[in-house]
Amino acid sequence: MSSTLYVDLSRIDHNLGVISDQVGKNINKMAVVKDDAYGHGAVPVARHLEEKVDYFCVAKLAEALELRESGIKKPILVFEIPPLGSEHLYKEHDITASISDLSVFERLEDGTQCHLHFDTGMFRLGMLPEQAESAREKMKEFDKMNYTGIYTHFANSDDPGHERVLRQLEVFKSIRPVFPDHLMTHACNSGGLFFYGDEGTYFDAVRFGVSLFGYAPGETEISELEPAVEWVSHLVQVKKLKKGDAVGYGSRWAAPEDGWLGTIPVGYADGVFRTLSGKIHVEIAGQLYQQVGTISMDYMTVYLGNTRFDQGEPVVILRNGKLSAKEWARIAGTIPYEITTTIHPKVKREYSS
Predict the structure, then answer these.
(1) Contact criterion met (CB below 8 Å) for 188 and 194
(2) Is 38 a catalytic residue?
(3) Rg (Cα) of the chain, in Å, rounded?
(4) Which residues of 189-206 are buried (b: 16+ CB within 10 A; e: fewer)?
(5) What residues contact 267, with CB distance under 8 A and at least 6 apart?
(6) Is 246 in a helix, a strand, or coil?
(7) Which of 240, 242, 249, 322 is catalytic?
(8) 35-70 per-position pLDDT tens digit
(9) How many helical (H) and strand (E) elements, i.e. helices and strands, does the chain have?
(10) 34 an active-site residue?
């Protein structure tokens, strides 16, 4: 095995506690474990959290089916529009569908649990606010379905004080009275629950993904959160370099002096972006060392200076602090959860609590 991603479930518990403290005990907790729990492993994470949350949320029906097949019993909300021909699977496996388009009312089987999804300004999925009355009529027409919730999704909640969040909230509150009172109402993602709680955004439930795994959704820090992963590999080869020796594809880095070069069997096929080449560090024996040369598909190299390590020496690639996904994201011009979700499934996951 070229590398291992260690997932600390106790840190996920800690983050859930931070979220619970933020929103209070009476708000339903909806853990978002889409895209393999942001790279952390959906099934192990869901099994660990099943007795600690009220709902799971996923992006695709296939993800919900995987959770059901692994024994997860808690309600699961699927965000995507139900794929054509798969409508029966929602009722068959007790999975909650999202009605994000008026046409979905006509496709779902009687008795299917579903949440109404309204697009109040994200302009991705969801019925438009002006379709609220039509949706209410569809509910009356297709009255044998099990309508259990209504929700929207904020586009700018990672930015505290953004006027568009307040505008979306106003729109959502204006259409909510069109629908029955018993529908569980939810709007907050991680940014919403941490940065807009004073605006009356919690309703009956909150949805949280990135914060569960220890990262703030934007640039504003949430110091209480703790990233849950540590990615470890090893040196597969150590070789002598002479001053001026050029390393890697394109020969973009040359040794400043005689020294040692370590090769790590992890590359962009594992999830270390090529754009990070020469810009990140790794940790060996408690010290940071510069990654050098172009990161290739299956390998990257690190300049060891005058220190010669043995083949097999452990190498920490990713962990909290200077080696964090947040730091990689800053360098790559992206967000921490793109970093964790692109760690390839071939990388072994190990769990501790």
Answers:
(1) no
(2) no
(3) 23
(4) bbbbbbbbbeeebbbbbb
(5) 295, 296, 297, 298, 299, 300
(6) strand
(7) 249
(8) 999 999 999 999 999 999 999 999 999 999 999 999
(9) 10, 19
(10) yes
